[in-house]
Amino acid sequence: MANAPTEPGTPEAAGTVQLGDGLTVSRLGFGGMALTPVYGEVDPAEALQTLHHAVDAGVSFIDTADIYGGGSNEELISQLLKDRRGEVQLATKFALVGTPTDGYTDIRGDAAYVHQAVERSLQRLGTDAIDLYYMHRRDVRVPIEETVGAMAELVQQGKVKHLGLSEVTAQELQDAAAVHPIAAVQSEWSIWSRDVERHVVPAAAALGVGFVPYSPLGRGFLTGTVDTASLGEKDFRRNIPRFAPDAASANQAVVDAVRAVADQLAATPAQVALAWLLAQGKRLGLPVVPIPGTRKAARIDENLGALALDLTPAHLEALDAASDAVVGSRSADPAWVSEGRE
Questions:
Q1: Over 60: is that where the pLDDT of 5 sits?
Q2: Catalytic hit among 39, 68, 133, 134
Q3: Closest CA to 91 of 184, 181, 188, 14
Q4: 0.85 cut: is pTM over it?
């Protein structure tokens, strides 16, 4: 059960929620990928300040991955953890080889790699244990039982406390849960990315697994602040079909629908998009903890305002309808995400 939110901008505002396997985290998390140059250049000092502000405001569930910035994202977060490890629920991921900006060369889920990857992450993060350790993508060459079995060994060794899976199918989730309890599934889920609702979300609800939506703001698009024509050469979004010029133009209708609801509530589009996800969790019967990322401390306070929004059935109907108009895939390779393997 989630705690009721209090005044935005205070540590109590985020409240807490329990995912699966007894893991308790803040009701909103923080996605760390934006603090490395995947959407443009980043000021390291400002990035660290943003992380500190997140924890000050009660957003204590911090998510990273070993491939963000080639490991530099974990190293950045280690600076936060030096003095505040006890205030943070730390999540990181393994399996992808490469970086978001330079491309990926492999996916590895073999047992030997699981053990190698966790040691590297622990060293970069400067911590003895990771609260939530995700398989970032599925290595289809390796039985998922082998991968999760190796992850379970990390729990037994005390290096990891809880296990997570990212972009798995319903069957993959069920097979993994038969090996070891799964605390959370992390997949893209938002008003314009709802494919997980067909199979993965119902499976997670049935198994008592929490859901952690990444890119809950549509990689910024749902906020209405992204000019797709001006994306930099190394901006990760240039590779995503729905950000292509024709698709982005058509998808503006989704942004317009989100903004219309925001105007009715004297809220921002980002707050509405996050509130919709939280409402979806209630409608579909599972705990949902979105992890929006940002480089700006002020955006964290804005995002926390979503916890106080009450969307009416009419608002939800309008937002649901808007999602039907989305043009373009959320991934350049459908097999890369759960949708392409269901």
A1: no
A2: 68
A3: 184
A4: yes
